[in-house]
Structures are given as C-alpha cells and as structure tokens.
Amino acid sequence: MTSLSRRDLLAGGMGLSISAGLAACSTPNTPSVTPSSLLGPPTGAAPSPGQRVVEQSLTARPLTLDLGGRQVATWAYGDRVPGPVLRATAGDFLRVTLQNELPAPTTIHWHGIRLRNEADGVPGMTQDPVEPGGRFVYEFTAPDPGTYFFHPHVGVQLDRGLYAPLVIDDPDEPGAYDAEWVVVLDDWIDGTGATPDEVLEQLIADGGEDSGGMGGMGHGSMGGMGMGDPPWGDAGDVIYPHFLVNGRPPTDPEVLSARPGQRVRLRIINSASDTIFTVALGGHRMTITHSDGFPVEPVDVEAVYIGMGERYDATVTLRDGVFPLVACPVGKTSGGQAMALVRTGAGSPPAPTVTPSELDGPVLIGSQLQPAEAARLPQRSTDTSEDLVLQGSMRPYRWGINGAVYGENEPLTVERGQRLRLNAVNMSMMTHPLHIHGHTFALPSGLRKDTVLMAPMQSFAIDLDADNTGDWMIHCHNVYHAEAGMMIALEYTT
Ligand code: C2O
Ligand code: CU
Description:
With about 500 residues, this protein is mainly beta.
C-alpha cells in the first residue's frame, strides 16, 4: 500500500496520497531550485506566481487499529496508521489543513523541513495549539528534496498513531530505480493497556522523588532495561508489546511486491518514540544513498541503525523469492521485532521471529557516512558557538539540556546570517537522537542531518547556517525525554 512504481511517478500520478489540488499549477516540473545554502529557505506565507501548490486535508481523530487481530484504540490521521503519504516536489508550496477531532489539543510538526517558522507546529512557540473541533492551515514551501515525516508536537502524542511520511521529490533526481517503498517503523503501546500519557506518568513515578534541581543530571543511572549493543548503552526506557512496519505487526506483515532484478528505493523512517532499530533486508545488501533527506556518498551495508526521527534512503536490487525486511529494536528484550515481507517470487514466508544473518555482522552507524559533495555547507568559518549539553537520569526521571529542563534553561541565541557551531555533548548514560527544527546541520565530516544519534559521552561539533529567522526547538527525539524536559529553544536575536 505504500509502494509506488517509478512509472506512476513519471506518469504524474501523484500516487496514493495526494487528493491534491494542483491549484496554481502551470509550468510542468521545472522548478529552478537555487542552492538553498545561498538563499536560505523560502519564507513566503503565500505561493509565489507560478509556484505549484499541493493541498491536503488531514483529520486527527480516534481510530481503532487492527494489529494482527488485536484491536487497539488510538489516535491517527484519518483511517490508517501511518497516515497517508504526503508527496510534493522540491520548491512546491504545501497547504495542509489540519482538522482536530481528537479530545485533546494538537499540532503538526514537519520534521526536517526547513520551513517558515509560523508553520513549524510548536505550540507556545510558533502557534497556539489547535483545540478539539478546531482547524489550522499549515502553509509553507518545501525547499529540499528528501524523505521526511510529520507528527504532533504536543505532549507524547507522537507515540500514538499520529505520524505519516512526507516525501519531497527531486526534480533533478535521475531515479535509477524501478519502484519505491516507504517503510515506516514504530514502537507500539497505545491501546494495549496504557496510553503514552500513562507511560510517561509511570516513568516519572518509577523515577522516584525528585530531589530538586539538576542534582541527578550528569551521569545518571541506567534504566535497568533497554541495554543495547555497543555503542548505544542504555537505548530505551519503555517496554513495548509491539513493533510495527507501516502500522502492521510481523504476524500480519505488509507485503512489498516487485519483480526479481528490479531496483527498489527504500525510504526508511523511524517514527518510534523510544526505540532505535537495526534494519536489514534478508538475503540482500542495501546501498545507503541519503540520510535525513540529503545525499551521501553511497555505501553498501548489510544493516543500518536508525534512531528516532532519522530517515535513511537505500536502494536494493532484488533477488527472487520471499525475504524478511526486519527492524530489530536495539536493547529491547520483549515485544519481538518489526517486519515486512518483500516478495518477488514463489516461496513461503519466513517466520515473524526470523533473524536475517545480515544482522550478525557490522551495522552502519549513520553519522559515519560521508556527505555527497552537493550536500556540503559552503566553506566558511564559524561566527559564534553555543554549548549543548544533554543531561539526565532515569532516577529521578528528569532530562534536560544545559543544566536545566526546558522552560528553565536559557535559550540559545544566534543572529541571522551567522554560522553557528553547537558543541553538543551527551553527558548521560543513554543514547539520545538530537533533533533541530528549521535547519539541517553539518557534522564535522560535512554530513548533513537534522537528527543525529548521540551515544553516551559522545560529542559532536555541529554547524548550521542561521538563515531561517524565528524561534526553534532543539530536543531529544525520544518523546518521553523531550516531554520530561530535554528541549531547548534556539532564538534569532536579529
Ligand atoms: Cu520530529 Cu521537534 O520533532
Ligand atoms: Cu533522549
């Protein structure tokens, strides 16, 4: 259901998802995308003349989801999990109307997109929350091609079924593949006995008395669960009963079909809240081509780690048969794994518990990829720097940045036009996916990311060009850590 052939793309079928109005559509696919590093992201509140407009309506509402025969109550965009793929071409203007039919306020955040601040979806920072029964229209230009997703930025709503892929096509992409599969990974607990809000309450209760201040911040204690393979240390706090690919458990997997010999582009999105996965396709090597939307020097791997909020694109030349596409939760000892099936020919499907041998060898750590030349920031020196220290502990359950929880910590500041260096260091014993809104940053290698896994005690000097005025969030993409305080604001002073 999330597969789309190259032919469909070329035929201009907008695919499964966009009940799109092509309102201001006139010129066929010739957006001239000026390198954004020179220009900054477009911040117009309305489409410019000739700019193609992609429209979509999304209703956030309660839904009963069937997990291989188990009915769970959750919240979703429309009638499925993940929500419908939203698809546009780089340079398009997106106009997405959110109708809130949830019993709680919500917003949508367009994860990884360098968009105008007003559309970023952070309540209390860029907009008021959308109240039950209310609606909000998100309008922005998507300047960069790549694989993205969207989700609420309210509480721990991300850990319900409120997430969906956002694919921005590249008008200059040669498209050396025959088909494309969007692969969305998730950890699932909602409706199985606890809601995500109750999970957070429990984590705080289990953390015990808060002695006040950031006394516990620093090394902290381990969670007692979620001990992952090296290098991740303590990799997660929450025990999940299910892990899903495209909303389905391994006992009722999605079947991705193609013909033997075809080249397929995988767009792998980790929309989990508390789970790093190791991803492998049994019987195949994957060529990793993009990280967080941006091209990398292609690397052939048997398996890759993907942290919460990260995306990797890979191409695979398919063999003949039936193969498990497995996402193995790092450091989780119950709940099994996530799995879809790739079918190109006859054969009986592997068991839901199958472990492809590709998972036995070395696993690529995405931050070690090298950027494609086109993805590098221009050479220049940094103008200013800020420290970004990730701290916290399980007991008490308290996570923060720069010595305090969000709201008590000092916002980071930058002036428009500056190159900002963030000296990011993880001073805790857990791994945290560090995510920055409205910008993509460069690691010391030049690799462009918007979300990067930071292992215990790991540090990165992260550079970004301050070309997108506004107030932005920087936070851990473990939604429970973020909600417990592991966020900080980045504010433009000019
Ligand atoms: Cu996907 Cu502020 O996050
Ligand atoms: Cu974290």
